[in-house]
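Dear colleagues,

For the upcoming journal club I promised to circulate an example of a predicted protein-ligand complex. I picked one with coproporphyrinogen III because it came up in last month's discussion. The inputs are reproduced below in full, followed by the predicted structure.
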Amino acid sequence: MQNSRFLRACRREPVDATPVWLMRQAGRYMPEYRELRTKYSILELIKDPVLACEVTMQPINAFDLDAAIIFADILPPLEGMGLELEFLKGEGPVIHNPVRTAKAVGQLVLPEPRETLSFTLEAIKLVRKELEPRGIPLIGFSGAPFTLASYAVEGGASKNRIEVKKLMWNEPVAWHSLMNKLATLAGEYLLAQAEAGAQALQLFDSWVGELSPADYEKFVLPYSRKALEIASKAGVPLIHFGTGTSGMLPLIQKAGGDVIGVDWRTDLAAAWDELGDSVAVQGNLDPVALFAGWDALQPQVEKILDRVKGKPGHIFNLGHGILPETPVDTVRRLIDLVHDYTKTTP
Ligand code: CP3
């Protein structure tokens, strides 16, 4: 298992072919997932370890993927803090009691993820049993403090993130207290997932690109670093992913991570040059490229692979999560193309 392509690439060791997995690979673009969703809500799927295991395995059974990611979401950890989470049809996640004041921050509980998120830890154990004979490693994950704070403060999706930035600038004491709690929660949750069997951990900072580099450095970096420092006690590779980070990749790296996730707005080789040789990189195909015809898609994939050719430590992925309407057949061809194009004969 430690010799799997994915874990070797995380450690920047040479591989026989470039490993590939896709962020949000278990989900709505798959008919098997949509079928289960006619019977269960997303939270029901996440909170039942047997069902969560089944969903995790769906893309593994369908495609030649090099890693699995546990089926969960970044938001259930907020429930243990006292936030009321609901996924509304067509609208996405909603927090009914968003945190907008110093008082509300003070009332947030710091939960013990081994208790409040035991369903995901249990699911990890079940998935590991299925993956072990196939030699495929399992990734655990958490939302990063800023992305979690965005949902906790805004109460759901938000275009300009006015509420979260207002709290950050106007109430620095409350902000630092909130981020401290979220960093501890994210770090402990990641650590618990590794203890349950996850062989790599990814921190998703999906909305961090909304910040200026200066604000990131002052208000966010110390907390992402804290979360990653706690998680690093597990001794497994840490993947640090954000979108819209082209103006602050060195700061993302400064916060930590053995692998840095890069979105498609940056040339992957240029990003890697900026980051230097002490990290591996993951990315970075535009998820919308999977909607293009194969003749338009194939050269985009090959170009990414060519740009980082011969340098150990590239994990192929999309630059952000796979989109709901993505054609399944294109996903299969993409994964096979990455392997075929990079295969080396020993
Ligand atoms: O990758 C995987 O296969 C694991 C599953 C996974 C989900 N969410 C399941 C899910 C992962 C890794 C996530 C992470 C996540 N969740 C992020 C970070 C990654 C990213 O894409 O930026 C964020 C921001 C969320 C929050 C979230 N969850 C939103 C905004 C939504 C609704 C809109 C959307 O993107 O689907 C969800 C719901 C959700 N989480 C679904 C899935 C499969 C779809 C729910 C459904 O079945 O209707």
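Two points we might discuss: The longest strand covers residues 138-143. The pocket of coproporphyrinogen III is lined by residues 23-28, 37, 42, 69, 71, 73-75, 87, 92-93, 141, 204, 206, 320-321 (CB under 6 Å).

See you all on Thursday,
B. R.
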